[in-house]
Specification:
By secondary structure, the protein is α/β, with parallel strands linked by helices. It contains 11 helices and 8 strands. The chain has 2 domains: about 170 residues, 2-enoyl-CoA Hydratase, Chain A, domain 1, CATH 3.90.226.10; about 70 residues, peptide peptidase (sppa) like domain (peptide peptidase (sppa) fold, 3-Layer(aba) Sandwich), CATH 3.40.1750.
Length: about 280
């Protein structure tokens, strides 16, 4: 029992020492870096992305930021959260470059708009500038099954988009006005940074929900250059004046124990540790 306790104590001490060393190393100069933040999938929960953007702004070793976007879009509010965080990042004076991957459409394009330069592959799918609200009605199906529903509500619009009934003409007008406002916000967000590259009249003409390849998007002025992630990184180095800067992929912050298990103890599996401690 005493032998087992000593091993546990030794393991804890090692973790503490490694934690202290990691903290000290984190304070040492790391040289110039270009940060890369990846945004994948639907844009719904922006908090972690916003936190990384803020870290890139405050980190003096980060001289430029490359946002790698591979997203079909998401909610308006979440896209605006990231858009605003990128606007705040730009106050640092550091270059902001977007690299579009397979797809950067709708909200994916929304968050790309503040960039100093937007790179896309020739076959990237982008655009889809617009706002949509969908309504699915199952009233007739429920009636065939003998199921009835009743809504007790405080206002006439409280159960708008309920699948259990048709939309009234008044509700359709109300929803149309709502998405029209969100649509105008989308257009103005683009024009704020790209009005010299695509005139408002042209933007409104093509902002009808259609998608474009990266090649066509460049011709229209929606993107600036054709190229991949490495091209965007090289351009970020050039714009920041740090040709030898290292690339730094910013990921979610993890606790010291998790980092130690995943990085510092690579190849040192949990079963082996348990066996060592308990034998």
């Amino acid at each position: 029992m005493r032998k087992w306790f000593k091993r546990i104590s030794l393991f804890v001490i090692v973790l503490i020492v490694l934690g202290i060393l990691t903290s000290l190393l984190a304070r040492l100069p790391v040289g110039d870096r270009v940060a890369v933040i990846k945004i994948r999938g639907a844009i719904i929960e922006p908090d972690r992305i916003v936190e990384r953007i803020q870290r890139a702004k405050e980190d003096n070793s980060v001289k430029a930021l490359v946002l790698r976007v591979d997203s079909p879009g998401g909610s308006v509010g979440a896209s605006q959260e990231i858009y605003r965080a990128l606007e705040d990042f730009k106050t640092s004076g550091k270059p902001l470059i977007v690299s579009m991957g397979n797809v950067a459409a709708s909200g994916g394009y929304y968050i790309s708009a503040p960039a100093d330069l937007i790179f896309a592959n020739p076959g990237t799918i982008t655009g889809s500038i617009g706002v949509i609200v969908q309504h699915t009605e199952v009233k007739d199906l429920l009636e065939k099954l003998g199921i009835k529903t009743t809504s007790i509500k405080t206002g006439k619009f409280k159960d708008t988009l309920s699948p259990f009934r048709e939309l009234s003409p008044e509700e359709k007008e109300y929803l149309q006005n709502t998405i029209k406002d969100a649509y105008e916000q989308f257009l103005q967000a683009i024009l704020k940074y790209r009005s010299k590259k695509i005139p408002e009249e042209k933007l409104r003409e093509i902002a009808d929900g259609r998608v474009f390849t990266g090649k066509i998007a460049k011709e229209l002025g929606l993107v600036d250059e054709l190229g991949n992630l490495q091209d965007a990184i090289n351009k970020a180095r050039q714009m920041a004046g740090v040709p030898q800067a290292r690339v730094f992929y910013m990921e979610e912050r993890r606790g010291i124990l998790r980092r130690l298990m995943e990085e510092d103890f690579q190849g040192f599996s949990y079963p082996f540790m348990l066996y060592y401690l308990m034998k």
